[in-house]
């Protein structure tokens, strides 16, 4: 059975699965096997706790990890698609929550990475979700919205084809590094932006 296939849980079982999945996901170092088990628990909990914003976001985050690190493209695709559904649910529950918009953008990007036919559609969806997340909480996930929006600007073609702009990418990544200078990915991508500029 896939780690993202939903089954029906009672509310009590779902709350227990949420706690157990959260513990598994928090264990370091993260491994695909452990996150697979965590994502299964969290997705099951989120499916049962449809009105729980945090449950939707936690599951979407764990599924994003699988969408990036699973070795099998079909498993990556399934994880990203399920993450999008849960992040969309989070956005509906709490439109003013940065997390739901952020994980929606991340899972959308991961889907586009596996399914190249979705790529150009994904860019506009990601851009809108990341801008919304950034406006709501620019510090979430170590300035994640600035970082990902900056990468999006660096790695997409310029207008009229897409939104690419090395200058905008640099500005966003400078802000991410300014907010969280000790977070390695902020420095790594800032280096890429400096090279591109």
Descriptive key words:
197 residues; mainly alpha
Give the helix/strand class: mainly alpha
> How many E-type strands?
0
User: Total number of helical segments?
Assistant: 9
Proportion of residues in β-strands: under 5%
Uncertain residue ranges: none
Radius of gyration equals 17 Å
Shape: globular
The main sheet comes to:
none
Order of helices and strands: HHHHHHHHH
How much helix, percentage-wise, in residues? over 70%
In round numbers, the mean pLDDT is 95
- Give the termini separation: 47 Å
Description:
The protein is mainly alpha-helical. 76% of the residues lie in helices and 0% in strands. The chain has helices at 11-26, 32-48, 53-69, 73-93, 98-114, 119-136, 140-155, 166-179, 184-196. Helix 5 (98-114) runs antiparallel to helix 6 (119-136), helix 5 (98-114) packs parallel to helix 7 (140-155) and helix 6 (119-136) runs antiparallel to helix 7 (140-155). The mean pLDDT is 95.
Short account of what is shown:
This protein is mainly α and 197 residues long. It is built from nine helices and no strands.
What's the arrangement of secondary structure elements?
Elements: H1 11-26, H2 32-48, H3 53-69, H4 73-93, H5 98-114, H6 119-136, H7 140-155, H8 166-179, H9 184-196
